[in-house]
């Protein structure tokens, strides 16, 4: 892995870091850019569903970043067992990590799959198929986005709705509170919590009732954290329309035809953002540290 040019000059002091949704998409790009910045002795805990992809990323970071302790825990944050496993890892590892800085990035909840969108499309072409179907996506791929083929009036199954919010809201709340408790409060320490948000936290998208509701709830949840804990720096960061599997799902599965066409137009006009570009902007925001705690900041506004 090649570090971002100039990463060594901007190396941070030793920190304890937790990153969810780390194995693919935006989370994977963020991990690759964050790791070289972390000073010797830092701890980086990676959480994600996919054990194989997570292990590969951890091995890559260990090889490329000597002095960085990389731990990974495969857990489905949408299940009680997976959430308990993740919380257990946080409670076990953070007390023994560097005590001066905590960085928790809640990225889980952004829809990704086992392969990237360009690879998936190419695969379909090779098979002489033109339509992307739900079966092309890894299990759980739509769990982050919800069933976007459904309108508001079609969402009548409480199990479906509760499962969605358990993954996207309950897990983020439990993991964040557990991490802050485990790290503790020490004189002079720095604690920063990032919620990967979305324009959908602010603006309604037809057919996206679950996703918009989940993102809006998470934004408010972390604003409450900022209000209650003034010593914790809190940022809701919307990374923009990323060139990930979520956008591929959006333009093929969204029930509302007009919305589906808008997503297709974003792709066709080349307006989708590379994950690494948005991740670099987030890290600059954290380095500058001038944002108002609890604020919602968008890729295009900074």
Automatic annotation (TrEMBL):
GO terms for biological process: nitric oxide biosynthetic process; tetrahydrobiopterin biosynthetic process. It comes from the Eukaryota. Keywords: Cytoplasm, NADP, Oxidoreductase. This is Sepiapterin reductase. Its EC number is 1.1.1.153. One of its GO terms (molecular function) is sepiapterin reductase (NADP+) activity. Belongs to the sepiapterin reductase family. The keyword NADP applies. InterPro entries: Biopterin_syn/organic_redct, NAD(P)-bd_dom_sf, SDR_fam, Sepiapterin_red. GO terms for cellular component: cytosol; nucleoplasm. It comes from Gallus gallus (Chicken). It is found in: Cytoplasm. The keyword Oxidoreductase applies. Pfam families: adh_short (PF00106).
């Amino acid at each position: 892995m090649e570090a971002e040019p100039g990463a060594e000059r901007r190396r941070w002091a030793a920190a304890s870091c937790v990153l969810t949704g780390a194995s693919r998409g935006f989370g994977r790009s963020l991990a690759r850019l964050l790791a070289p910045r972390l000073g010797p002795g830092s701890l980086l805990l990676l959480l994600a569903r996919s054990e194989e992809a997570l292990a590969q990323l951890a091995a890559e970071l260990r090889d490329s970043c000597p002095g960085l302790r990389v731990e990974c825990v495969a857990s489905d944050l949408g299940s009680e067992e997976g959430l308990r496993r993740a919380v257990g890892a946080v409670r076990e590892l953070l007390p023994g990590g560097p005590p001066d800085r905590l960085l928790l990035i809640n990225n889980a909840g952004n829809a990704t799959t086992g392969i990237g969108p360009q690879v998936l499309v190419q695969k379909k072409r090779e098979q002489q198929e033109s339509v992307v179907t739900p079966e092309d996506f890894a299990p759980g791929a739509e769990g982050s986005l919800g069933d976007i083929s459904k309108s508001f009036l079609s969402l009548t199954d409480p199990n479906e709705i509760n499962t969605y919010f358990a993954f996207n809201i309950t897990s983020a709340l439990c993991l964040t509170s557990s991490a802050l408790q485990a790290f503790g409060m020490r004189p002079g320490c720095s604690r920063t919590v990032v919620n990967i948000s979305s324009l959908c936290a602010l603006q309604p998208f037809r057919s996206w009732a679950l996703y918009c509701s989940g993102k809006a709830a998470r934004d408010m949840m972390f604003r409450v954290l900022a209000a209650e804990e003034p010593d914790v720096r809190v940022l809701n960061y919307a990374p923009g329309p990323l060139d990930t599997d979520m956008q591929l799902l959006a333009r093929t599965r969204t029930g509302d035809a007009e919305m589906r066409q808008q997503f297709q137009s974003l792709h066709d006009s080349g307006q989708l953002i590379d994950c690494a570009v948005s991740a670099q902007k987030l890290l600059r925001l954290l380095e500058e540290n001038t944002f108002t705690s609890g604020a919602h900041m968008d890729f295009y506004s900074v």
